[in-house]
Specification:
Layout: E1 4-11, E2 15-22, E3 27-31, H1 36-45, E4 49-54, H2 60-63, H3 66-72, E5 78-82, E6 92-94, E7 99-102, E8 106-112, E9 121-125, E10 129-133, E11 136-137, E12 140-141, H4 149-160, E13 167-170, H5 175-185, H6 190-202, E14 215-216, H7 217-223, H8 232-238, H9 244-261
Parallel strand pairs: 3-4, 4-5, 5-6, 10-13
Antiparallel strand pairs: 1-2, 2-3, 7-8, 8-9, 9-10, 11-12, 13-14
The structure holds zinc ion (ZN).
Zinc ion binds near residues 57, 116, 134 and 142.
Pfam family, one: HAGH_C
EC number: 3.1.2.6
Keywords: Hydrolase, Metal-binding, Zinc
Length: about 260
């Protein structure tokens, strides 16, 4: 049996928060709890006690609830955030490879993935789940706000190095739009076409649909152009370019330019 249960909780217009509940102790971590009422309700509904906050990065729509939640929930004694990310209320700044536990059985390992912010981290939980914040989306990637294409390439390599069955839990519901760009980027990839139709059918949890989480590492390798910079079809999209980071830059630029046209 799994050591933990993951409960996604929608917030704002397209954000995802998560509750990670250690099954034995019912102690829980709240991931990016921007809507403190919704995350507390999820804890009550599942008989869990939040004692930890996991922050992927310091943008307000991920970390903006930290101080209020710490004030509202007296059992919270740990707030994690990436080194150098200046996360509100942070008590434990973490870097690559740091490990800690939720409850007694749920292990968390930190992947340091700066680029979208300078201290962005992902959390690899119980060898079965990864929480990717605004670094990896389903079939997409976050903006390279503070970093370089080389940093995003390194971040993707770390995430994609996890086992293929790992569940990927992302920071926003952007899947249908991301898949539409993926089809534009790789027009002959049949799996991406099917993925786009599936995403449209699922709809957004935020407006009464089912949503598209979790993805898996295997699915991202098949359907995420930012994860496919070493595949021929993405190389074709980029044009002559031998450098992996440069292809990451060109896919990002392609998505941004496509977004302006769409
Ligand atoms: Zn962000």
């Amino acid at each position: 049996m799994a050591n933990c249960t993951v409960i996604p909780v929608p917030a704002l217009s397209d954000n995802y928060m998560y509750l990670i509940v250690d099954n034995e102790t019912k102690q829980a971590a709240a991931v990016d709890p921007v809507d403190i009422d919704a995350i507390q309700k999820a804890a009550v509904d599942n008989g869990a006690t939040i004692n930890t906050i996991l922050t992927t990065h310091n943008h307000w729509d991920h970390s903006g609830g930290n101080l209020k939640l710490v004030k509202a929930v007296s059992s919270i004694d740990r707030v994690y955030g990436g080194i150098g990310d200046d996360v509100p209320g942070c008590t434990h700044e973490v870097g690559d490879g740091d490990t800690f536990k939720i409850g007694t059985n749920t292990t968390v390992k930190v992947l340091f993935t700066p680029c979208h912010t300078q201290g962005h981290v992902c959390y690899h939980v119980d060898d079965a789940h990864v929480f990717t914040g605004d670094t990896m989306f389903v079939s997409g990637a976050g903006n390279f706000n503070t970093g370089t294409p080389a940093q995003m390439t390194e971040a993707f390599d770390k995430i994609l190095g996890l086992p293929e069955s790992t569940n990927v839990w992302v920071g926003h519901e952007y899947t249908a739009k991301n898949c539409a760009f993926a089809c534009f980027c790789e027009p002959n990839n049949e799996e991406i076409k099917m993925r786009l139709e599936w995403a449209k059918g699922q709809g957004s949890i935020h407006s009464g649909g089912k949503g598209t989480i979790p993805s898996t590492i295997a699915m991202e390798k098949a359907c995420n152009p930012f994860a496919r910079i070493d595949h021929l079809s993405v190389m074709d999209f980029c044009g002559p370019c031998d450098d992996r980071s440069d292809r990451m830059r060109l896919v990002r630029k392609g998505k941004d330019d496509w977004g302006k046209m769409a």
